[in-house]
């Protein structure tokens, strides 16, 4: 079996887990193989992914909701030159299917490397996900020995994840945001992210994944965050950053939104300069709906909300009559 076919099989196995019959998770050998292939794709990317072109589906926090991820891919279709995907981080923790979620995302990146971009969130750090659900899920579902090994193998891939990206029309994509330590894109370009295992290793990385947009006192650019990590950044700071770097707006995740999205910062003309997207339905039993942002080739943004727990939310696919198997055959 070729390496490509092996990844396809792992993906199909993950999809079958959602079916009524019981299907086991991938074994340690398959997970280690997938992690190696995943790192190989990520290591050639820059810390700041620049000049992304084409139509994008932008996905916010998933937090271990494989049901939401599967819903999104089934609704919009497999990544392709016509429709690409950008994921903003926080793939694991909180939810109950973090293992499937992160492994499926790895499969997508390996199978469609040019059409999938994955950024690092604050939960893609071992110091966080060891205590907020992912470690316990690995141990409880896979046992101490294999669970610990898979937990470590997956965490070893996270420093390879890029930290930010630039979408069409100068839209700056990041998990959290900016800060007093992030003024130019060079502040991100020069990060040696492969060495960043712990947030404390880099204040810039900390701020990128932990920052929050907030209304601050007049003239105030940033302020310490109540989270204890990262900074709050104001409309003025955001406008300053966008102007200096020839950008137009920020799209980010990191905060649960009851309607799946939120216009976090709006200028005096009513233009949203910072948009938050959240893609996990009923996050922590909050009964929220989820959303994705659709960005066309010109950089125009539209929002599509969904609730994959509702039977009324029918899935429409843009794949025509092609099945997954047909698509796989076309790839080979």
TrEMBL record:
GO terms for molecular function: metal ion binding; protein serine/threonine phosphatase activity. It catalyses: O-phospho-L-seryl-[protein] + H2O = L-seryl-[protein] + phosphate; O-phospho-L-threonyl-[protein] + H2O = L-threonyl-[protein] + phosphate. GO terms for cellular component: FAR/SIN/STRIPAK complex. Its EC number is 3.1.3.16. Its cofactor is Mn(2+). It is an enzyme of class 3 (hydrolase). The keyword ATP-binding does not apply. The keyword Manganese applies. Pfam families: Metallophos. InterPro entries: Calcineurin-like_PHP, Metallo-depent_PP-like, PP1_catalytic_subunit, Ser/Thr-sp_prot-phosphatase. Residues 119-124 form the Serine/threonine specific protein phosphatases domain. Keywords: Hydrolase, Manganese, Metal-binding, Protein phosphatase. Belongs to the PPP phosphatase family. This is Serine/threonine-protein phosphatase. It comes from Trichomonas vaginalis (strain ATCC PRA-98 / G3).
